[in-house]
Amino acid sequence: MARSIRPDAVLIQAVIAGALSFAHLHDLAAAAGQTGWKAWAYPVSVDLLLVAAWRRLRTDGPSRLAWCWFLIALFASLGANVATAGFLDLDHPPAWLRFGVAGWPALAFLGGTLLAHAPTSATGRDRVSVASAPAAPAPQPGIEPAPAPPAVEDTPAALPPATAATPVPAALVSHARKVAADHQARTGTRIDTDTLRTRLGVPAPLADAIAAQLT
């Protein structure tokens, strides 16, 4: 199916402006002493440098290098349009114009080389590294992934078993026997555990252990 070609006002305007700028650069180069094919090569060089700098700005983002050569090429194109509008006597061009036109090829070659071999931006390198990174293998149908190992829980270490009886120093047992004998002599009854604990001033577990040894 053939696509219909519709006239675009912006495209037509761009073609007209490019043709006029191309002709002005040719006329300026011819007036500065560049004859034959060399006069036609100048506008090609200026326009290509302008396009290369603009492409670098669009692809890699703003940079001093791209902006510098874009402004240089724009100044050369705009300067040719203004110079051919009657501001300069092209029949007797000034020396600085001849100097500028003669030095343009070397300047354009330097700009084109720097734009072509300038390092890419960090964003471009990041995109390349991400694209070259190996992708995770896709799961195969019918094969279940291996279950993850169970998590090992931190269990506290086993506590040593509690002692069956609280150890009682022999001296404390001997003193308790004297207290018990004194209590029985005064009251006529055996001393109970609470009274023994009070007389000795010891904790209840220790008093129980002493009472067990007095029986």
Task: Name the features.
0% strand; 8 helices; 66% helix; 215 residues; mainly alpha
**Can you count the helices?**
8
Briefly note the structural class of the backbone.
Answer: mainly alpha
Taking the sheet with the most strands, its summary is: none
Helix content: 55-70%
Give a description of the structure.
The structure is a single chain. It is built from eight helices and no strands. Helix 1 packs across helix 3 (64-87), helix 2 packs antiparallel against helix 3 and helix 6 (170-187) packs across helix 8. The model is unreliable at 122-131 and 155-164 (pLDDT under 50). It is 66% helix and 0% strand. The protein has helices at 9-31, 37-60, 64-87, 95-117, 122-132, 170-187, 193-200, 204-214. It starts with 8 loop residues before the first helix and ends with a helix. It is mainly alpha-helical and 215 residues long.
Write the topology of this structure.
Blueprint: H1 9-31, H2 37-60, H3 64-87, H4 95-117, H5 122-132, H6 170-187, H7 193-200, H8 204-214
Summarize the structure.
The chain is mainly α and 215 residues long. 66% of the residues lie in helices and 0% in strands.
